[in-house]
Here is the input.
Amino acid sequence: MGAGRLASRIEHVEPDNRSFFLSFRDEWTDEPFLKFHAHQGLELLFIHEGHGVVEVEGRSYELEGGALFCFQPYQLHRVEIPGRADVRYVRTNLTFDPRYVEPYLAPYPKLQAFLRFLTKGSLPAPKYRFADNRLSGLIESHAEAVKKSGEDQEEARILFLIALLRYLQLTVISPADLSPEGWSVRKTAHIEAIMDWIEGRFRRSFSLDLLAGDLHLSPYYVSHLFKQYTGESITDYVTARRIREACVLLGNSDKSVQQIAQEVGSLSAPYFCKLFKKHKRMTPLDYRSALQHSPKR
Here is the structure.
């Protein structure tokens, strides 16, 4: 990538079209770098060198070598690097549609749950640490595989994603970030069943009693277990899921705010706007505008 360009745009990852994007050790020098955008896919931003600031939904994080940032689908984020001739900004960017790899994770339920957490879970923070040599080895192996004559490109990408997710699961993102220590298989299965139930019904009016009844559990147990596992209430999780769906609709349709409010939970427009601004630090229309138009310098 050439230096001296200020990038700012929304980048889309469509199913069956750019479902996988990888840029290894992309380098930026000399002039300031500023990007404010979101993706339809899951973005993993690995920082090899550089210093700057990453802002995600009103919170700031230091950008530094060895940092990994995980940006969930439609999560607006701002990356800013001050321009200095003696400092390089070197990054690896991997963006992919989780639906691209999910079918291949069916034999590996724990890895499948891990990807689901990265994509839809409540991450405590988007920043983690990684070992540069391990990552480089994985990507270089992938690059060598796709160069081979007759190599199936899609198969190579799937195998690379599985290996990378396994590496992240084992060495980068601590189990403490995923679930409390000492949790039984039974409790974890209950949590997954709760999340599956919410995923299928979050567009309807939420009822804790109905959820508990369908899973043959008590409302108190469901509520207590979910809070203990995720650190947030089940109603807060449902709200966050609705907001994520609203972001998809704002970015991919011309539906009105009133229509979207109805579609993501039969909410009134004023109440939906209040929830959206609380979560995203901007109104739904401002969010749509941020996706559709490059911000001014």
Remarks:
- Confidence is low (pLDDT under 50) at residues 1-17.
- The longest strand covers residues 20-28.
